[in-house]
Write a structure and sequence with these properties.
Distance between the termini: 38 Å
Structural class: alpha+beta
Shape: globular
CATH class: Alpha Beta
CATH architecture: 2-Layer Sandwich
Bound molecules: flavin-adenine dinucleotide
Strand content: 15-25%
Strand order of the largest sheet: 1-2-3-7-4
């Protein structure tokens, strides 16, 4: 039996945030055929492959928000992201989460350092704007130094006997965390609608877009429904 450290991306993953983060598809339960079987469960017949009629039914279910059959297809992802993105992600209550604990581990502490910074939007306090004249390289270096100083203080507190559960309070929001998230297709589509949107923060959009890439081979006919509506998958 081999043991793999969870901070390592799984085989099927997509890198995000300039390679500093990633999201991987660990596993999935069910297929598009599971969805149409669930929709027709009252007929007591099971199919293993999708016919044209099944694709039409699948599209009908999505179009008419007949969502419960979609809940029978379930995905598990492994996500490596900054703490501030984890905070946004965990607002999605229909996911189940488990995370590597800072109370048990002290290896592989990593911090996200953005390659470039965006300006604060003037009209919307939740938004940012890209501006080519914004020279952020010196500030990015300051962020990197700040991350390192936090790590030094954390290690120094541990060396002086402070418990991990209190010492971790000095680690910044840029700290990378790794967690598993499991969600059914219906709630995943809801997540993607909210987080692969221009209203969402750029960083979480990168994760949502990576998830779309990872699940596309599992749900080609669901994807074709959204693409026919003009949505980018
Ligand atoms: C662009 C953006 C900005 C945001 N800004 C903020 C912010 O400033 N502050 C802030 O606090 N949050 C903010 N949020 C988080 C937001 O309020 C939601 O908590 C988050 O998007 C999860 O959405 P959800 O509840 O629909 O998803 P889930 O929790 O996955 O729930 C999915 C659906 O299940 C149903 N559901 C789940 N739980 C319940 C329940 N207890 N009762 C009834 N129905 C339920 C609802 O229909 C819900 O839509 C923001 C989100 C986005 C996308």
């Amino acid at each position: 039996m081999t043991t793999q450290h969870l901070n390592v991306p799984p085989a099927n993953h997509v890198k995000v945030l300039d390679g500093q983060g990633w999201v991987g598809l660990i596993d999935h339960l069910g297929s598009e055929a599971t969805i149409v079987n669930a929709a027709r469960v009252s007929f007591g017949k099971l199919k293993t492959e999708m016919s044209d009629k099944d694709v039409k039914l699948l599209h009908y279910l999505i179009e008419n928000k007949h969502t419960s059959p979609l809940e029978h297809l379930v995905f598990t992802f492994s996500i490596h992201c900054p703490l501030f993105i984890r905070g946004q992600w965990h607002r999605h209550r229909t996911w189940s989460y488990n995370e590597i604990s800072r109370r048990y581990t002290e290896i592989d502490l990593e911090f996200y350092t953005p390659n470039g910074l965006r300006r604060q939007a003037e009209t919307n306090r939740q938004a940012s704007v890209d501006s080519p004249d914004f020279d952020s390289s010196a500030m990015t270096e300051e962020i990197r130094q700040h991350n390192l100083k936090s790590l030094e203080l954390y290690n120094s507190l541990l060396e002086r006997g402070v418990c991990r559960e209190q010492a971790r309070g000095v680690l910044p929001q840029n700290m990378m965390v790794t967690f598993w998230g499991t969600v059914d297709l219906n709630n995943l589509l809801h997540f993607l609608e909210l987080r692969d949107s221009e209203h969402a923060q750029w960083e979480i959009r990168q994760y949502a877009s990576a998830i779309k890439q990872l699940i596309k081979p599992v749900i080609p006919n669901v994807v074709s429904y959204f693409e026919a509506k003009g949505q980018v998958w």
